[in-house]
Structures are given as C-alpha cells and as structure tokens.
Amino acid sequence: MTSDTSRSGRPHTLAGALASGTVVLDGGMSNQLESAGHDLSDELWSARLLAERPEAITEAHLAYFEAGADVAITSSYQATFEGFARRGIPRERAAGLLRLSVGSARAAARRARAKGFTRPLWVAASAGPYGAMLADGSEYRGRYGLSVAELERFHRPRLEVLAAAAPDVLALETVPDTDEARALLRAVRGLGVPAWLSYSVAGDRTRAGQPLEEAFAVAAEADEIIAVGVNCCAPEDVDGAVATAARVTGKPVVVYPNSGEVWDAGARAWSGRSTFTAEQVTGWRRGGARLVGGCCRVGPAAITRIRQSLASGR
Question: CB atoms < 10 A from the CB of 158, how many?
C-alpha cells in the first residue's frame, strides 16, 4: 500500500494534503487576465486566450502561486468541444487546447519552483457546467431540459482529455443542480483522477432550488470525490454550506466564493461592494473547509490575505 506522504512528511497527493491541513486555492482567472489588459468579452471567455495568448494564462497562474495559492485551477471552465466548434476550431485542435490548459498551469508551477518556491503546488483541471458552454447565464439556473445521461455524454469526452493531461484533481465546479452533479459523478468514473464537486448556490439551496443537504448527499459515497462544497456564490452563503457539506458527506469541504459584488448582465459590469474578507476563512476552516480560495473578483492580494489569515489562525 502506498503512502500519501513522502519521507520528508510532505503529501504526495492533494487528498493527502487535505488530510493533514488546509490548502489554499487561487482566485478568479478572468479578473486577473482583465487586470493585465486582456479583453474577455467573448463567448469563450478566458478559454479564448488558450488559442490566442496562452502565455497570458501561465502568467495569471504564476501570479496566484506567488500570492500564496497552493492550487491553480485551469482556464478550461468554458472550454468545450462544442464551444470551440462554434468558433471554427476543429475537435483535434480543441483537445489540444484542453491539454494546454493543464500544461499552462504546470508551466507556472515550474516557474514558481525556479523562483525558489518549495511547497507542493497542485493543478486542478476545471470542468464547468453545461450552461457555461451556452454562454447565456443558464449555468446559474440549471435545469437545461437534458437528462442525466445526456449531460454525462456532454461532459465525458472533455473530462477524458483533461484527465489524460494528468492534473492532480478535476474541479467539477459551479454546478447549478443535482442532475448535473449526478451526470458529472458518472462521467469521472474510471478516469483515474480524483475530483472535487462544488455547487453554485443561493442561500441554502442550489441555483436550481434543491436543498443543499440533498445536493451534497449525491457525492457522499463517490470514491472519486475527495472534497465537496461551493463556489461562485456570495461569501455570506458559505458558512451554512460548509456545515452541511461536512455533516452530510464527512469529506473535506472546498469553498471559493465570489467577492460579494453582483454581476449586471445588462450593463456587463460588476456593481456593489466586496463583502469577502480573509478573516472569514478561519471560521470556514473550523467548520470543515480544507480547500479555500476565491472565485470571481477575488484577486492575488486577497489570496495573500487568506494565506496569512490561515497561517496566523485568526
């Protein structure tokens, strides 16, 4: 039987790291790219840069590693065969771009180590929901009118390519309802790569309206799932979700909420103010959170504060 830790005591796997402590995730890829001057007003969002400016993706990952993140989430959230096909990108080239999303994060980790970083650095291959491919906001509603089997057929080919690129974990993220969660759990079976499952929620329910207790129970017995939780939600929704996820599944909890600002789809701009504070994460850790970071509008400075807050125990 193999151990999850090396002779030095460092974990070989992300699951091992979660068993021994808290791991810091990165923040929002899109806002980091936008802050570097890249235009993301496109249906492919940050995935477009995989084809046009892959070095920008690597730079964004590196910024988060330098800020204190242990895990880089790849830019493949909105990268799908169907979405690329609408832009005239053939299937073979699309598969290459999916692999490149993992390779870009690995390249950033190598550059971080060349700068003297010695802590373990992990790569999570992002797989967004079906609605992300539609680019019409339905990823925050779910209930696409597709069966679990149809959703599984959509997700499986992309997950196969991402898994073959050898990430440390698959990030099944921003999932709006339990039907899609069931499809994703079926789609990752046999791939040989662990995964986390995180829902997008509003209050104590999924975006599609199911109770979180029911939603988390879907993953409770799935051996492939090493963490469950929430992302792309308001910070105020995290506390209850952490408690429920930990109680229902007994697994480590993953949380990476938005800043608390609100996206105005009509104006295509963020409004309101940030309610995310690094100090909140210590409470989330007490509740069972072991993977902690940020999503939309949470940048490198916030990730640095999260790491400092967790290190100090505040």
Answer: 22
Residues 6+ apart with CB under 8 A from 213: 244, 248
- Tell me the C-alpha distance between 25 and 27, whole Å: 7
Lowest-confidence range among 141-145, 270-274, 298-302, 305-309? Answer: 270-274
Burial of 80 (0-12, 13-18, 19+ CB in 10 A): buried
- Tell me the Cα Rg of the chain: 18
Say what the alpha-carbon torsion angle 41, 77, 106, 100 is, to the nearest 10 degrees.
Answer: -70
Return the structure tokens found at 34. 């936008």
Angle at 76 between CA 46 and CA 172, to 5 degrees: 130
User: Given this model, what pLDDT does residue 7 score?
Assistant: 44
Please give the angle made by the CA atoms of 159, 170 and 278, to the nearest 5 degrees: 145
Q: Which residue has the tokens 């149809």?
A: 150
Angle among Cα 22, 237, 186 to the nearest 5 degrees reads 70
Give all strands (DSSP E) within the chain, no chain letters: 23-24, 71-73, 122-127, 169-175, 195-199, 201-202, 205-206, 225-231, 253-256, 262-264, 269-271, 289-292
| Side chain identity at residue 65, one-letter code | F
Q: Which residue has the tokens 């057929």?
A: 153
Percentages (nearest 5) of helix, strand, coil residues in the chain:
45, 15, 40
Cβ–Cβ under 8 Å, residues 159 and 170: yes
Per DSSP, the three-state class of 263 is strand
Residue range 136-188, pLDDT digits in tens: 888 889 999 999 999 999 999 999 999 999 999 999 999 999 999 999 999 99
